[in-house]
Amino acid sequence: MIYLAVDLDNTLLKTDVLLELIWSSFSQSLIQFLKTRSFNRGQIKRKLASFAELDVTVLPYNSEVLQCIQNWRAKGGKVALVTATDQLIAEKIAAHLGLFDEVYGSDGQVNLKGENKARFIVERLGEKNFIYMGDSEADLPVWAVAAKAITVNAPPHLRKKVEQINPNVEHLGSAKQSIKPYLKEIRPHQWVKNVLVFLPMLAGHQFNLPTFGISLVAAVAFSLTASSVYVLNDLLDLQADRAHPRKRHRPFAAGDIPLSHGIWLILILLGVGMAIATTLSWPFVGILLAYYGLTTAYSFYLKRRIIIDICTLAGLYTIRIFAGAVATGISLSVWLLAFSIFFFFCLATVKRQAELVDHCHRKQLKASGRGYHIDDLPIISMMAIGAGYVSILVLALYINSPQVQLLYTRPQVLWGICCVLLYWITRTILLTHRGLMHYDPIVYAIKDRQSQICFLICLVLFILGGIL
Q: What is the pLDDT of residues 4-22, one digit of tens each?
């Protein structure tokens, strides 16, 4: 009987299990990850498989390959999973799918890949007594001894090589790479947060082209650097994202971008962002490095520490304002800093509130990858309300200060901004409580019609206040 032998990485799965295990262990414990060092690739896989958490039920499976396996079994054929992935993980995946008659993986000593895999399959199944389904050049020795070769998403040059060594060949999937997943991954919609770089210019009433140009360059540098962090965070949160109804569609979690491209994407975005930053000033580069260091610490550790994570998120917003001040040389007022701290603490808390409400609706007692429990929701909501209202109080005190009398001809008009913010903050927290908030309040505000109207009203009031 001819077997259908199926590879795992980038064939049955739209991802690479070894890289999955590396990022999972890296996210859980850097010290434990370093303990997996070994000169033997098979030993590395065994150590990672025994330590790293990998939920096989949410991995991105290739639906076309699954359909081929089901069709083969429907005809009475037998299927074997033959992979370089460790046997422990291979057996978990096989048990979850229930589609394989035999499962063979690396055993901690021998890495079942390339020539090793070809020899192993011939010993177990016999030469030309199996059909092999794979995806990479490492599978060429296996295809050479197979009765039929099936490639999955193979590039044109690999398809030609397979056709030369095995005339009985079938190609599944497309090797074409779209730029859309990469654009989605760097999250350009999140760049709107970097308009905070322009706040020192607006608050200091420095309305001139050179200052605007400097602020714009600073915002671009911040956007690229922030995107680098988004990529890193998505790689570290693969398991948590796949368990989330919306985040599971992110490119890395869905398998739309190879995990091997992740590190290059991080380095390119960070490198270009820093290169742009050097055109402004070294103090600005220092601020950007501090931002990157804090966000990296957040991704690895701080996001799991209750309250500290919210303070960190609020600080990351405020750093953008500092960056704008450093880039343009404009001094920040105490009023602006005080308002920013409380207002952004409110937004960061709303983000956690939205996550907890979402977990509550899905009947999960603890937020995945966070330190909060569903029972914390009332306290988190009160924190959001308190911080939001205090930020409005700070703004009200600022409007009544002597400084405003010098900057505006009609400062009494600015009281309207306080009323609009009071409405917007209250409505935002209420919508979040009802489970209608996007997991990021900034993204939600950009798309929400009433939030857009509130922003326009505040802008009009700011102008009517009489900018000198």
A: 999 999 999 999 988 888 8
